[in-house]
Amino acid sequence: MAAADWFAQAEVAEPAPPARRRKRPVERPAAPVRSRRKHARRRVRGHIVWMILFALLLSGVVAVNVAVLRAHVAVTRLDQERTQLQAQNQALASRLSAASSAPRIEAAARRLGLVQAQTSDTTYLDLAPNR
Fold first, then answer.
1. Measured between alpha carbons, how far is 100 from 125 in angstroms, rounded to an integer?
2. Terminal Cα distance for the chain, rounded
3. How far is CA 89 from the centre of its chain?
4. Is residue 104 within 8 Å of residue 98, measured between CB atoms?
5. Neighbours of 99 (CB within 10 A)
6. Which pLDDT tens digits describe the chain residue by residue (131 residues)?
7. 0.90 cut: is pTM over it?
8. Whole-number Å distance between alpha carbons of 117 and 106
């Protein structure tokens, strides 16, 4: 497009058609006007309710995790205590076995002046009741 075209007189277009006149609609009873504020409040309330529900859910998950950790600590402590008690029981069983051994009893009897009986002098009594 040349510069002369810019300044040339524009061709005249046809006139615009006359604006149509709108018909008035039949008057109806006024519909209740809904407030945008109420709708916005409901929407905000809904979001707040969901956030509270999620917060409660997450706090419940945290509470369950804490309870599981406490239970695990208690079980670990009880397991250690059981291991210690088993070791003590084994030590006591060893001491009992050593205290009730035949050589120890014989040595204690000799210190008291007791002697072992001869097998020929040994007899057995039947203590069962007569039938």
1. 25
2. 145
3. 36
4. yes
5. 9
6. 555 565 556 666 677 777 777 777 667 766 665 666 666 666 778 888 899 999 999 999 999 999 999 999 999 999 999 999 999 999 999 999 988 888 888 899 999 999 888 888 888 888 888 76
7. no
8. 12
Token code pair at residue 29: 């009873």
State the maximum Cα–Cα separation within the chain, in Å, rounded to a whole number: 158
Encoded amino acid at 88, one letter: Q
Could you give the count of Cα atoms lying within 13 Å of 3 in the half-sphere of its Cβ?
0
Give the whole-angstrom CA distance, residue 70 versus residue 78: 12
- Extract the tokens encoding 73: 């600590």
